[in-house]
Amino acid sequence: MRYRYLLLLLVLFFWLGLVPIADAAMCRERNGQQVCILKLKRSAKNYWEYRAKISIDGKKQADKEIYNCRDRTLTRKGKYPIPFKPDSPGELVCFTLGV
Length: 99
Fold this sequence. Notes:
Layout: H1 2-17, E1 26-30, E2 33-42, E3 49-56, E4 59-60, E5 65-68, E6 73-76, E7 82-83, H2 89-96
Antiparallel strand pairs: 1-2, 2-3, 3-4, 3-5, 5-6, 6-7
């Protein structure tokens, strides 16, 4: 009887250990375009900032962009902050995360 529990435990352990990790992008339909958040990382220093890589209609961005959900601005590769436009990908990032 004890061996059955041990065997069941081992089978369960190996079954859970072999399940592949899901790698799915979060996509939304906005203004006739499909906007997908491919990678998303929250800043440790400024919790309102997110570094994200986004694709619009399957075209991936070249670089990661910094979305500031507090000031509603977007910063591209060391340049000046740009305010979000209505229905922009930045609005999607901040709305999805509830910021």
